[in-house]
Design brief:
mainly beta
Length: about 170
């Protein structure tokens, strides 16, 4: 944060819960001098302090903001939606946006990369979503006979493999 020995970010001391998604992690002000931290945002990631006295951060499907001044170090107020349609990746805690000192916002249009549902498309182009949760999916591999699908689901510390049988209604 400008003019201080403090920084804005998410921190996980040993033994504390770590979510696979940035949407579920708090944002803190951390003092480099005292090693103390203060939670200022309950859930979010990719926080940026603005000279207007706000913090803009990613959460859900877009950007949110709270009023914040480094001197008062207050937060934990209800965030206000700023913009939807920003390319987000909560798994890697990346949001594709930047804000200049004059307040100009630039962003990559898109959506939340971690919220997708695989679809099965037949030769006639008819698509049906698979009965699977919307989340980040990695590599897909279809069986030679085209009836089974293997899917990798990346996590922070590991990757899970699951399969889907086209003749079934459950993964």
């Amino acid at each position: 944060l400008p003019g201080s020995n403090e920084m804005l970010g998410w921190f996980w001391p040993a033994g504390e819960f770590q979510s696979d998604s940035g949407d579920y992690n708090p944002i803190h002000v951390y003092s480099l001098a005292t090693k103390q931290r203060l939670k200022v945002i309950e859930r979010g990631y990719a926080a940026r302090f603005l000279p207007t006295g706000h913090v803009v951060f990613a959460g859900g499907s877009g950007l949110l903001a709270i009023p914040f001044t480094p001197e008062r170090r207050q937060g934990l107020v209800e965030p206000v939606p700023v913009l939807d349609g920003v390319m987000l990746n909560a798994l890697d805690r990346v949001a594709q946006f930047a804000v200049s000192a004059s307040g100009t916002l630039v962003y990559v249009a898109g959506g939340a990369l971690h919220k997708t549902t695989p679809s099965w498309v037949d030769r006639d182009g008819n698509a049906r979503k698979l009965p699977m949760a919307a989340q980040t999916y990695g590599m897909l591999k279809l069986s030679p006979d085209g009836t089974r699908l293997a899917i990798l689901i990346p996590g922070v510390n590991d990757t899970t493999a699951c399969s889907y049988d086209a003749s079934s209604t459950t993964p």
